[in-house]
Write a structure and sequence with these properties.
The strands form two sheets. This protein has a five-stranded parallel sheet, sandwiched between helices. The protein has a two-stranded antiparallel ribbon with strand order 6-7. Helix content is about 45%, strand content about 15%. The model has no long low-confidence stretch (mean pLDDT about 90). The chain has a single domain, classed as HUPs (Rossmann fold), CATH 3.40.50.620. Strand 2 (about 30-40), helix 2 and strand 3 form a beta-alpha-beta unit. The longest helix is centred in the last third of the chain and has 18 residues, at about 215-230. By secondary structure, it is an alpha/beta fold. Bound molecules: zinc ion.
Length: about 230
């Protein structure tokens, strides 16, 4: 039974983090909708993971509302390539930022999400941003999210609450949270995190190349979670 009389919009990519955030929101709010973005990501396969994950969660959660998909690929492509939106190598670029950094991405996604939430009458906006396992993305920082909340509320004259349940968790704790919500098998079998879009190689922690930074973080968190659970 949801605990708070409020509605939520979850930024849902089909990855491990946003799936865990969706389960978190479904446990809290009586009505939850999802938004996904097609932004030319090289791991576009994650977009195909969304529907089966939603279908699985809908079987146990009657409060899962409609899904919305926004295509911002053309706009981002016009701004230039990054390793997340092209085949460029994934590495640390100039200024210490990873080449997978898409400048402005989370700022754009949150702005689109708030615009939709405004129209749909939704107050909570939930995202899987995380500062702990922070891949070096400045737009995942807590301060960035807090500043966005202020800007969106001022600019749209609403009282949106931006919620980031994973902000201070590491990947081990994210796996533990998935277990708490009973979605471990769903996360392993259905979610997608690998930057390279690999859905061929199946590991104990799910599908992926096993080598890109996203796979390494996911695999490492999984083995630490398993070791902790066994202890
Ligand atoms: Zn990978």
């Amino acid at each position: 039974m949801p605990r708070f009389a409020d509605n939520a919009l979850v930024l849902f990519s089909g990855g491990q983090d946003s799936t865990t955030c969706l389960a978190w929101a479904l446990a809290r709010y009586p009505h939850v909708e999802t938004i996904g973005f097609s932004y030319g990501q090289r791991h576009a396969v994650e977009m195909q993971c969304r529907a089966p994950i939603r279908a699985a969660l809908a079987r146990t959660h009657a409060n899962l509302g409609p899904d919305h998909v926004i295509d911002i690929a053309a706009g981002l492509a016009a701004l230039g390539a990054t390793a997340l939106t092209s085949d460029a190598p994934i590495e640390t670029g100039p200024g210490g930022l990873p080449t997978t950094f898409v400048p402005g991405r989370n700022l754009l996604l949150l702005t689109y999400a708030a615009a939709l939430a405004w129209r749909r009458g939704l107050r909570r906006i939930v995202g899987g941003m995380c500062e702990t396992d922070f891949s070096g993305y400045p737009d995942c920082r807590d301060d960035t999210i807090k500043a966005m909340q202020l800007a969106l509320n001022l600019g749209m004259q609403r009282r949106f609450v931006l919620e980031t349940p994973l902000m201070w968790l590491d990947k081990q704790q994210t796996w533990a949270m998935a277990a708490e919500f009973g979605i471990t098998d769903l996360v392993i079998g259905q979610t997608h995190t690998c930057y390279r879009g690999d859905r061929v190689h199946r590991h104990a922690w799910g599908y992926g190349c096993g080598e890109c930074p996203a796979c390494q973080l996911r695999a490492d968190g999984f083995s630490r979670w398993q070791a902790g659970a066994a202890a």
